[in-house]
Specification:
This protein is an alpha/beta fold. 37% of the residues lie in helices and 25% in strands.
Length: 235
């Protein structure tokens, strides 16, 4: 399979290594110094995009316009999801997106929801999310943290929204974002009462888990039209 990498930073290089190990070919490498060339992009079987929130829409539309299914790892664009969905559907193309491509993190998403369901009757516990990432990460909170917060809001009857700061509002889920050099990603959810604390945590040791998931997603979307997430892949 010929893969076009849109974004060739640390994540792009990690994806490249795993893709080559799995027998694929990198047909193009696009970055800020080598912008997407539609004629070159069109030669790929699939594109994998990890760039910036302010660039991702142009990259998605370029891939769809050239009938190249695309895997999108960039977050921070979901307010435009309905627009993207219409374009993908009209073109009868394929889009695979995720806030996190790690298999472990997606298991963690389910664990978060199951624990929240158990905690729902126990209002004496205050819930909070903390996410820690490397200093190069531009969006805050992380897409993973937002997905975790949405899982809490879906299961906890007293929560209606999230905020990216500490809060005393009982309707809100607090997300505390920290940026520390060389941290691939750590996410924790804590429930704290006056007498004890319950915590679940996922810690990534490297980018390899994210990169492998992105390549698996590319293998999937190359054969499937429509819009898909990690649920489609894991199922």
């Amino acid at each position: 399979m010929n893969i076009a990498l849109i974004g060739y930073g640390k994540m792009g290089k990690a994806i490249e290594k795993i893709a080559l190990d799995r027998g694929h070919t990198i047909s193009a490498r696009f970055d800020s110094k080598n912008p997407v060339d539609p004629s070159v992009l069109a030669q790929a079987d699939v594109a994998i995009e990890f760039t910036r929130p302010d660039r991702v829409l142009a990259h998605i539309f370029a891939a769809i316009d050239n009938q190249v299914p695309i895997v999108v790892g960039t977050t921070g664009w979901y307010e435009h999801f309905d627009e993207v969905k219409k374009v993908v559907k009209k073109a009868k193309s394929g889009l695979f997106y995720a806030t996190n491509f790690s298999v472990g993190v997606n298991l963690f998403f389910d664990l978060n929801k199951k624990l929240a369901k158990l905690m729902n009757p126990h209002l004496e516990y205050a819930v909070q999310i903390e996410e820690i990432h490397h200093t190069e990460k531009l969006d805050s909170p992380s897409g993973t943290a937002i997905t975790l917060a949405e899982g809490l809001i879906d299961r906890l009857d007293d929560k209606n929204s999230w905020v990216n700061q500490e809060t005393t509002n009982p309707d809100e889920v607090a997300i505390i974002s920290k940026r520390v050099p060389h941290v691939p990603g750590t996410h924790s959810i804590t429930y704290t009462s006056g007498i004890d604390q319950i915590e679940i945590k996922h810690t990534a040791f490297s980018r390899e888990g994210f990169a492998l998931g992105a390549v698996l997603a590319a293998e999937f979307i190359a054969k499937n039209k429509g819009i898909h997430t990690m649920k489609s892949l894991l199922n």
